[in-house]
Write a structure and sequence with these properties.
There is one protein chain. By secondary structure, this protein is α+β, with helices and mostly antiparallel strands. It has four domains: 67 residues, Winged helix-like DNA-binding domain superfamily/Winged helix DNA-binding domain (Arc Repressor Mutant, subunit A, Orthogonal Bundle); 32 residues, no CATH class; 89 residues, Roll (SH3 type barrels); 79 residues, Alpha-Beta Plaits (2-Layer Sandwich), CATH 3.30.70.
Length: 294
């Protein structure tokens, strides 16, 4: 263990315990007691309020005020950091020791405020593979089924994972399309992390327009029979209820093939009002589908 890491661990242990002996610390870190005393001296020089006492109940300790007074963060800021770390632990499988260390520094008990279940993905390993690709900047290879059920092999540079409208999505640079694409994670199969490294970053707002994901505003007419989906899948400010019980919905989505599959999933209970090009595309797809039944 490096010296700096050991010094931090010593402070962390002292925050947890009232006192501990140099011998116990030496055994834990597999070093000599002489090394531990040198570490304690280094911490004291760094103005960490460590003290030692002799006798039967003696040992090394740290002043309790240090835990309470050495932070410049407000109560709310401390809570926000803990909540964020807990969320990351649930989502990304982060080591729980990080959360415990920070909660000890803040002298706070962490409330278990969030639970995330990945079981609807089929396998939790899918998320781990995507996370590995993003964090290590490694390309991913997978089989993808679009909203029409078309199967393609994709190699992408994974950049960010999104949770939106009750579903998980991967934003990445697709080598096949030579552009940025959004993939629904549930439709990604046979995922592999490749050895090929990439340096690409997620585009920022100030970068060129051609690299930004474009949104499209849809105006939809949806029958009253689909009320449960309307209220489940759209926000209140996107919905206008008509006198006959049907709905007018105005919503903005990234312009991808997913839009067409989503609209078609409503069957005869939906009508596209605008834009015209979406209406035309839906019409063509319905005509192509109809050919399968002639």
């Amino acid at each position: 263990m490096q010296v700096n890491n050991r010094l931090f661990e010593i402070v962390y242990i002292l925050m947890q315990k009232k006192k501990i002996t140099a011998k116990e610390l030496a055994e834990k870190f597999e070093v000599s007691t002489r090394t531990i005393y040198r570490d304690i001296e280094s911490l004291s020089r760094a103005k960490i309020p460590i003290y030692s006492s002799k006798g039967k109940d003696g040992g090394i300790g740290i002043l309790e005020e240090y835990v309470l007074n050495k932070t410049v963060l407000s109560e709310e800021e401390q809570n926000q950091i803990l909540f964020a770390l807990q969320g990351m632990k649930k989502i990304a499988g982060e080591d729980k020791d990080i959360l415990e260390k920070i909660s000890t520094i803040f002298n706070k008990k962490v409330n278990d405020w969030i639970k995330i279940d990945f079981s609807n993905w089929g396998k939790e390993e899918k998320f781990e593979l995507i996370k590995t690709g993003i964090l290590n900047k490694k390309q991913l290879e997978f089989t993808y089924y679009n909203s029409n059920g078309d199967k393609t092999k994709r190699i992408v540079e994974p950049l960010q994972i999104w949770f939106k409208d009750k579903s998980w999505y991967l934003i990445s640079y697709c080598k096949l399309k030579e552009d940025y694409r959004i993939f629904k994670v549930a439709r990604m199969k046979e995922i592999k992390v490749l050895e090929k490294h990439f340096e690409r970053e997620l585009p920022k707002e100030q970068k060129e327009e051609k690299y930004k994901l474009k949104n499209i505003v849809l105006e939809l007419e949806i029958s009253k029979e689909m009320a449960y989906r309307v209220y489940d899948e759209f926000e209140d400010n996107e919905i206008t209820k008509n006198e006959d019980g049907s709905f007018r919905v105005k919503v903005e989505y990234p312009e991808t093939d997913w839009i067409y599959g989503y609209i078609l999933s409503f069957g005869e209970n939906i009508k596209v009002i605008s834009p015209k090009r979406v209406k035309s595309t839906i019409k063509v797809r319905l005509e192509e589908t109809l050919k399968n039944y002639l």
